[in-house]
Amino acid sequence: MKQTLYLLLFIAMVATSQTMSAQNETIVFTPQWTAQAQFAGYYVAEAKGFYREAGVKVRIEHPSATQPAMSRLRNNECQATTLQVCQALEIIDDGIPLVNILQTSMNNAMVIVSARGKDPLTQKGAKVGIWSVGFGQLAICMSIKDHLNYEWVRFAQNVNLFVAGALDATLAMSYNEYYQLVQAGVQMTDKNVYRFCDHGYNVQEDGVYMTREYYSTHKDQARRFAQASRKGWEWAAAHPQEALDIVMQYVDKNHIATNRVMQKLMLDDVLRLQVDRESKKREFRLRPDMVQLASRLMVENQMLSREVTFKELSE
Fold it and tell me: 253 pLDDT exceeds 50?
């Protein structure tokens, strides 16, 4: 009887020790891009002490040109990152199970902007800019479905190729490259701007992901991190000017070439995209119907070898 009791006590002590060890670990969080208002809620959560209040240690480390966010996650150099839904599906299909612990985007931000006022859907075989790090899965699906046969030209992070006239059109995010083009003097009209969210491709984008292996041993820590991050975004939505001040501190710290006007436009649009079109609320949830839509489109266009289900991404 005593031996059984001692064994149970030992098991309980080990479990408690493991739990405390997990709680004391620092979550290194790597957003998928350099410092900008796209990640305002996380900066707010750190700057306002929301992570500390939640009892979780978080360190924000941005990726570099040689170390993209997903590479850092694969190599255990970070424990959480932001990904678009389509990216997450590809990674899971590639054999790396992921868990979505927080969904911030409720709408798709991608657009195609055509040069010389032309309709993107009339430019078959056009040279179209696409990000070298990904993000263009839905555009590729659309190009195949509508028999546009775009010639994809990869770019790193800006709109210079398009502005210089080397491209017929370019992909852009409504909160980022779209405003870069506006600032560069490109005319934007209903004719030359194609918004994917208005044409049957409204698939959610940014969410926070962990590998399922890490999440399985750090569930409480992951949930605290997610709750504090959500609180950061809610505070940013309620205090956009103060949130922008915090964003600019991170921008300056990381020596990012941008300006406050651009970051304000970005923050306003990112916050707009967080409001679900149907419920008119900031829901912070992954929608099963959007996962299903993305998975179906990508399977149909041979971008996935199989359907990846909502259950595979959920906690």
Answer: yes
Count of CB atoms within 10 A of residue 288's CB? Answer: 13
- Determine whether 256 is exposed, middle or buried from the number of CB atoms within 10 Å of its CB (0-12, 13-18, 19+): middle
Condensed to tens digits (0 to 9), the pLDDT of residues 154-190 reads 987 778 999 999 999 999 999 999 999 999 999 999 9
Q: Give the distance from CA 18 to its chain's centroid.
A: 31
Tokens of 4: 């059984």
Rounded to an integer, what distance in angstroms lies between the CA atom of residue 48 and that of residue 217?
27
Rounded distance, CA 164 to CA 221, Å?
Answer: 48
Phi and psi of 29, rounded to 5°?
A: -110, 120
Q: What is the pLDDT of residue 23?
A: 54
DSSP codes joined into one string, 153-204: EEESS-SHHHHTT--SEEEEETTTHHHHHHHTT----TTTEEEGGGTT----
Cβ distance 40 to 233 under 8 Å? yes
Residues 6+ apart with CB under 8 A from 113: 120, 162, 169, 170, 172, 178, 181, 186, 188, 192, 193
Determine the pLDDT at residue 65.
Answer: 66
Residue type, 260: R
Mean confidence (pLDDT) of the chain = 91
Query: Whole-angstrom Cα distance, residue 67 to residue 222?
Result: 23
The rounded radius of gyration (Å) of the Cα atoms in the chain is 21
Q: Show the tokens assigned to 212.
A: 């399922």
Task: Pick the closest to residue 104 from 229, 241, 224, 225 (CA basis).
Answer: 229
Cα separation, 193 vs 276, in Å, equals 22
Quick one: average pLDDT of 56-73?
A: 88
